[in-house]
Amino acid sequence: MELGPMTWIDIDDPIVVVPVGSCEQHGPHLPLHTDTIIATALAHDLATRRGDCVVAPAIAISASGEHAGFAGTLSVGTEVTAGIVIELARSADWASGVVFVNGHGGNVTAMERAAEVFERDRRDVLIWWPYLPDGDPHAGHTETSLMLALAPDEVRGERSVAGPIPAMVDLVRYGVQPISETGVLGDPTEATADHGLELFASLTDHLAAAVADWAG
User: Fold this and answer.
1) How far is CA 79 from each of CA 70, 75, 105, 127, rounded to the nearest angstrom?
2) I want to staple 160 with a disulfide (CB 3.0 to 4.6 A). Which of 75, 92, 152, 188 is the partner?
3) Which of these, 168, 188, 166, lies nearest to 179 by C-alpha position?
């Protein structure tokens, strides 16, 4: 299931599934690698459901400029992230296709730019990211519930505090720190593992269906 421990002669035309996360602040209560944990769990679920996938090592540092000013945040920016995604897919010509499971909203522009290149190159690549229309933006009820389901030992629940939910135009213009001093955008205080399991089940079903449609 995992690519890293395999040898090259063990590989037989798989779909390569690449989790894409981030290393950025997620409030005082969630770890910096929250997005990577969620993306990796989704990728592993997909590989478990299908017999033709291997999970690549995660891209764990990506475009997190909107979280500048918070300790622990690392970012390589949109252009570099897009370049990494493009070159990684190009290097996987030995695979039947590549699926990027993106767990970080700040990567959307990079992924869109990469998708344009893949379309022009006629490359077999699917870029997927979660869509939860009722979710809050960052480190709130949604992500905290998912983390309580997936990695409860890494959630510092006693530190959780509610934060504002800004308009997207303000978030893009100003970044997170001028809007929320805690880094939280939403309300994690009533998050539950049960809700996280429901969210995860919905996301995994969505991902599996998207890959089935793409792979034919």
Assistant:
1) 21, 11, 15, 17
2) 188
3) 166
CA 187 to chain CA mean position, Å: 20
Does residue 61 sit in helix, strand or coil? coil
pLDDT in tens, 120-176: 999 999 999 998 888 899 999 999 999 999 999 999 999 999 999 999 899 989 999
CB 39 within 8 A of CB 45: no
| Rounded distance between C-alpha atoms, residue 139 and residue 128, angstroms | 20
Distance CA(15)–CA(10), nearest Å, equals 14
Geometric angle at alpha carbon 45, from 43 and 47, rounded to 5°: 70
Closest by alpha carbon to 206, among 48, 42, 50? 42
Which runs of E-coded beta strand occur in the chain? 15-20, 53-55, 97-102, 125-128
Which domains does the chain possess? Answer: 8-215 (3.40.50.10310)
Residue type at 44 in one-letter notation: H
